[in-house]
């Protein structure tokens, strides 16, 4: 079974759409664990859906990383897949493809996606994982699946990494020699909007966590970037 971990805060309609996209998956062996990090709107969405495969809980900590950690602790699947509450599956066979790749020996499975802006779509194709991972975080967190035992063996999620919890995990897996599997096609839609872009009001906070990540992994200095900037700079094909 795949446990889909979804932290949420103040975006009930987007969460509802994310869960509906999950319910349309052709792979039947999944559960969703929604970790409420806000005022409770997400739990109301879970209750209204009345799907026994979807469970909600309150984040006993604070922030997106601790919400994911809480969902991970409650997960029952052999694998976990990350999904932000404002993103959604575009490929109805995505979970099946991820599960098949894990069953064939992959430790981490990630895919291509589409960045969804208000007035356009930007295809996002990160390419096969390689040394570029030490310079750029091209992997989309939403849609990335990891064997649960592997995730725990790697030390779980590090809340000290803040916004870069995902890059930190990918780096640990890469340096441990974990096999990555790349799924092509329109797998996941990633919404780009004012509340989730890297720049603006949270630039200094993100820069702080980026420097913390760089120090932990001994990386060369890297500039602040988000997936939209990476996609536009590269023409969306790396």
Estimated radius of gyration: 17 Å
Largest sheet composition: 9 strands, mixed
Low-confidence stretches: none
Average predicted confidence as pLDDT: 92
Q: What is the molecular shape?
A: globular
Overview of this structure, please?
Strands 1, 2, 3, 4, 5, 6, 7, 8 and 9 form a nine-stranded mixed β-sheet that branches. With 238 residues, this protein is an alpha/beta fold. Helix 1 links the parallel strand 1 and strand 2 (30-36). 34% of the residues lie in helices and 23% in strands. It has eight helices and nine strands.
What are the defining features of this structure?
nine-stranded mixed beta sheet, alpha/beta, 23% strand, 34% helix, 8 helices, 238 residues
Short synopsis of the structure:
The protein is an alpha/beta fold and 238 residues long. It has helices at residues 12-23, 41-49, 64-74, 94-103, 148-153, 165-175, 203-217, 227-234, and strands at 2-8, 30-36, 54-58, 79-82, 87-89, 108-116, 121-124, 145-147, 180-191.
Helices, strands, pairings?
Layout lengths: L1 E7 L3 H12 L6 E7 L4 H9 L4 E5 L5 H11 L4 E4 L4 E3 L4 H10 L4 E9 L4 E4 L20 E3 H6 L11 H11 L4 E12 L11 H15 L9 H8 L4
Parallel strand pairs: 1-2, 1-4, 2-3, 6-9
Antiparallel strand pairs: 4-8, 5-9, 6-7, 6-8
Helix pairs in contact: 1-2
